[in-house]
Structure formats: structure tokens, C-alpha cells
Amino acid sequence: MVALLKSGRINNRLLCKLATHKNFIKFLADIEVYVDGIAAMQIQNLNSIVDTVRHEVIE
Fold this sequence. Notes:
Helices cover 85% and strands 0% of the residues. By secondary structure, the protein is mainly alpha-helical.
């Protein structure tokens, strides 16, 4: 994160505005729920693929 901030590739002023907003913590919590949901879906998808491959190998 420090390297990203130093790189100049993002608007640090805008990031500071976001971080000091009264709803920033809620925003982070919402992002966490979203990301965790995507991760859970991907794990389920991978498990389904593994199950399918196992089933095909056994037959």
C-alpha cells in the first residue's frame, strides 16, 4: 500500500477524502462482504470442477 501511495498512480488527495468520510468504515465492511462472497463462490466453483474431474476419472 505504501508503494502504491508513493507511486503517484492514484490520487492521494481523493484517497484521503475517502478515508476521512464518516461512512468509510461502513464502506470497507461492505467491500469485505462483497469480496468474501466472491471468494466463496470461486471456491465452490473450483470444488465443483474437482468433483467433476474426479467423477470422470473414476468412470
